[in-house]
Amino acid sequence: MPLWLREHRWHQTPAAVFLSLPLRGARATPDSIFCSERYLKVSIPPFLFEAILYAPIDDTNSTAKIGNGNIFFTLYKKEPGLWDSLTLENADKEKLQYLRENAVLKAQQKAKEETEAKKATKEEHKKYALEATMKLEEAERKRIEDLKEKERQKVTEELELWKNQQNDADKYKNIQKEGELHQEIGQLKERKSEKMTKTRIPNEGTSKTRPKPTKGHGSCSIFSPNVKEEQLPAPRSAATIKVNFTPRVFPTALRESRVAEEEEWLHKQAEARRTISADLSELEDLKEDEKNPDWLKDKGNKMFAMGNYLAAVNAYNLAVRLNNKLPLLYLNRAACHLKLRNLHKAIEDSSKALELLTPPVPDNEEARVKAYVRRGTAFCQLELYTEGLQDYEAALKIDPKNKNIEKDAEKIRHLIQGTMQGS
């Protein structure tokens, strides 16, 4: 049974009621106090204070302070005036029960409304934050698109300027060639006129008697009017001789390379570029350029450089789902798994990259070296030093001048020797 607190002091003004309630050594907290328009309750086990107020109060602005073994209430009246007593007197039990229950229901309803108001405010803030984030992302995307458009326009203008310069240079060359051609024709005409003049004027030292023309078929005098003018050949037209060389993708000379293996490698790379799976549900919200495995690979490389290895792995994962024939995707993802200590996944991706980097040609030497080194590193971190040393030695066969790989291989040999001596 609770102990009712009957001792209290109160005084009033026309606007407020001031109530002091002793605690008798009990410790009160704000949760111990319940106050509504007509009902006041203080529950501090085993003590209990309950009062049905004489008139309604403003429970929102009313205050309660705990200190010095008392609770001080400041209750503001809704209607100014003096009360005859603190509590409602001469009220039957049914009315008191009704007022008590009504006060509790109003308090619950008010708490429910406040909770819903807080929830609505939180949803509004969340919605506002989402809208602000979407606006920022849209502005950033628009800025990037504007930069791309400006860069495209700049490249287009430079290309047009280069074309105009080439056309002007071609026109200048044609005019220069035409001038040289006219000059050559003029020189030929001058030579022809000089030769004709020398033919018509007789030499002074020659005999006055002219030789008789020899009669016969097909014979004629050089002074005969029937002699036709000397026919000169037309000047040769200018032309450009184009020389086509055999296209070579690989840096080695054709006589020193393995043509069959290189052609097979190029064919595999071309097939891998053409193989793109575009039926994934994740691609619905992406742009066309974002569905490109190369674009995703570059995105993963940027994330790796920033140290965000999980984001890089996600980018490589989507790129692999788009195209699972590109060895660099597995090779880069293996590097991320090494950073994240996912050693078994690093070994799996490195092995897959080596499987796709066949046949071995000069164009994929660097990628094969990285694949062997990353798989060997994962083996060594798993304390499988023998398998790791095999991969490092395979990398050294491809790139024997790499001093870093040689030092790492030597360290692994010392570790293997130490392990064998310790056992």
Automatic annotation (TrEMBL):
Q: Where in the cell is it found?
A: Cell projection, Neuron projection; Dynein axonemal particle; Nucleus
Chief site of localization: other
Q: In Gene Ontology terms, what is one molecular function of this protein?
A: nuclear estrogen receptor binding
TPR repeat residues: 369-402
GO biological process assignments: determination of left/right symmetry; epithelial cilium movement involved in extracellular fluid movement; heart development; inner dynein arm assembly; nervous system development; outer dynein arm assembly
Residues crossing the lipid bilayer are none
Report if keyword Methyltransferase is assigned: no
* Segments forming domain CS: 3-87
Q: Which UniProt keywords apply?
A: Cell projection, Coiled coil, Cytoplasm, Neurogenesis, Nucleus, Repeat, TPR repeat
What SUPFAM superfamilies does this protein's entry cite?
HSP20-like chaperones, TPR-like
Name the segments for region: Disordered.
Answer: 192-224
GO CC terms, sorted:
dynein axonemal particle; extracellular region; neuron projection; nucleus
Q: What is this protein called?
A: Dynein axonemal assembly factor 4
